[in-house]
Write a structure and sequence with these properties.
rod-shaped; binds zinc ion; four-stranded antiparallel sheet; 2 domains
């Protein structure tokens, strides 16, 4: 099961106490459904539990359960059939059949507590969140421009910093920062999902840290092996052309030591010399050998 599904299951299992919040969640769900107008009030979802919740919500308003149809057995479609029923649903949230553009009617969010419930309803309808194992991404897909603008501003008022992008003609409001997604999950009441996200994040951070460490050390080894092989080439060249005997004592010792230990790090060479020469001293002589070879 996807993380989104888990989050939605967790949200659906919440018991909403204040009536005002039940109303706000119902509003979020219906407003951000597939359509919410005099000509069509409908909802489409792959998640049957969510579709059932939508149907249940509509039933709470109309007294009768709306029709749920299965599209290819994949998408559950909930439709309010008659014009009279659609008008009843609209007016339950202060909307009228004549509206040209769909906007958020703030009158449905009577108290501060209702903001969270409204976001929860919207998320159930049009929200998804990526599995934190993959990446951090939460989005709300809104079909209408004005509605999307209103929702964007609503998030800003709550202190969030949403982003917006168009995708296949839909307005996508999204969030990328893991902390923001944690805050939104918590706001909606999905605390178990928040904890899961945090746990995954901690695991990732530890792994990243270990990987960085390993990469850093591998790079160091690579560097010293690479430098070592260049030095060995240089020393062989001196050997071929003028002979190692031509070098002064201190240089020859290091040249021979490097030939015998082509992959040793400076630190290891220092140990082999029992500390008679510092690492920088060894390094200096190795560089000198490379310079001499360049002139051979
Ligand atoms: Zn409330």
């Amino acid at each position: 099961m996807s993380f989104s599904t888990d989050v939605k299951d967790e949200l659906l299992a919440l018991t909403l106490v204040p009536e005002c919040c039940r109303h706000a969640q119902a509003y979020g769900m219906l407003l951000f459904g597939r359509s919410f107008s005099a000509s069509s009030v409908s909802f489409a979802a792959e998640n049957r539990t969510v579709a059932a919740e939508y149907a249940h919500t509509v039933q709470g308003i109309l007294g009768t359960e709306p029709e749920i149809t299965d599209n290819d057995g994949k998408i559950a479609l909930v439709t309010v059939r008659t014009a009279a029923d659609r008008r009843t649903v609209l007016s339950a949230f202060g909307h009228t059949p004549g509206e040209l553009t769909l906007r958020i009617n703030r009158a449905n969010l009577s108290n501060d507590c209702c903001f969270a419930a409204f976001v929860r309803g919207a998320f159930l309808s049009c929200g998804t969140v990526s599995s934190p194992e993959k990446n951090y991404h939460m989005e709300f897909i809104v079909p209408f421009l004005r509605l999307s603008n209103d929702f964007f501003a609503f998030f800003q008022e709550l202190g969030f910093r949403p982003k917006h992008v168009m995708r296949k003609g839909y307005h996508v409001i999204y969030f990328k920062e893991s902390e923001t997604i944690e805050d939104l999950l918590t706001l909606m009441g999905a605390t178990n999902s928040t904890l899961r996200l945090i746990n995954v994040k901690i695991g990732k951070d530890v792994r990243n840290h270990v990987n960085r460490r390993v990469n850093f050390e591998t790079a160091n080894i690579d560097r010293s092996v690479h430098a070592g092989s260049r030095q060995v080439e240089a020393i062989r060249k001196i050997q071929r052309t003028q002979g190692l005997e031509s070098l002064r004592e201190g240089l020859r010792e290091i040249a021979e030591l490097r030939l015998e230990n082509p992959e040793a790090s400076l630190y290891e060479l220092e140990e082999m010399l029992d500390g008679r020469l510092s690492r920088s001293g060894i390094n200096h002589r190795l560089k000198r050998l490379v310079e001499i070879a360049d002139q051979c």
